[in-house]
Amino acid sequence: MKETETLSKKTIILMAVVTGVIVANLNFIQPIENLIANDFGISKSVVGMLAMITQLGYAFGLLLIVPLGDIFDRYHLIQFMMILSIGSLLLAFWAPNAGVFAIATALIGITSVAPQIIIPFAGYLAPVLQRGKVLGIVLSGLLTGILLSRSFSGLLGSIMPWQDIYLIAAGIDLIFLIIGIILLDLGTQFSQVSNQAIVQSLNRQQSSRNNSVFMFSYFLGGSFGTLFATWAWSKAGWLGVCGIALVFLIIALANHFIIGEPKKLNTETD
């Protein structure tokens, strides 16, 4: 796109809203894990595995589907993935048992990759002088969807008739858990958005593939983080989860000092 061309504000806002709405599908399960365990008669550890399946499905969707944006028409690919995502959500709604629900969660993860096709698509459509601004708006929509989805799902769960199993102590724990998640998410997600913006500054002809590798690594790590956090919670509660987070932060810091600063990015444009 030429520098003199523009991308309409309505289109940019639409992209931002769609990315937020779709990515929210990945996080609906997390605040209601206890309720799912009660309904299906399964343990909390199994529900934790279901959350991990969703993230793994998303990771493999990023690896296998998002790169197709460099081959096929991105607009139609986005539409197709949104249709599949809706079907996956309907399957989760209908699921009569934990087995079918597990399949649905995997499909939700795999089919919710449209935002990661939209992001490089937005960068491709945006003129050079507006590319950073456009990507920032779209990524903000993604971040908003991630943050609000957990609160929205938790609120729905709290007002349903079968939600009366909560005890006062559990309610207090939930409040602090939500506060902790929101605060940690603000830090980690803003960091992720910054990193993703850097990735999008690479060769535009490979933007979908670059984004795929970055987001695959991101959500693969998130999948194992879910597994370790579930284990730590069962052993030591909130302190155990914080301990696991500290260990991963130390590993990341050590990795930074060992590898050093990244090489200068290729800022070549079309």
Quick recap:
It holds the Pfam family MFS_1. With 270 residues, this protein is mostly helical.
Sheet of most strands: none
The CATH superfamily appears as MFS general substrate transporter like domains
Spell out the helices and strands N to C: HHHHHHHHH
Give the number of helices: 9
Number of domains: 1
Instruction: Calculate Rg over CA atoms.
Output: 19 Å
Q: What's the rounded overall pLDDT mean? A: 72
Beta-strand content bin: under 5%
Just name the CATH architecture.
Up-down Bundle
Specify the CATH class. Mainly Alpha
In the CATH scheme, what's the topology name?
A: Growth Hormone, Chain: A
Shape: globular
Helical fraction: over 70%
Instruction: Output the structural class.
Output: mainly alpha
Kindly list the characteristics that best describe this protein.
mainly alpha, Growth Hormone, Chain: A, 9 helices, membrane, MFS, Major facilitator superfamily permease
Please provide a written account of the structure.
- Helix content is 76%, strand content 0%.
- It is mainly alpha-helical and 270 residues long.
- The protein has a single domain (9-259), classed as MFS general substrate transporter like domains (Growth Hormone, Chain: A), CATH 1.20.1250.
- The termini are close together.
- Residues 11-270 form the Major facilitator superfamily (MFS) profile domain.
- Keywords: Membrane, Transmembrane, Transmembrane helix, Transport.
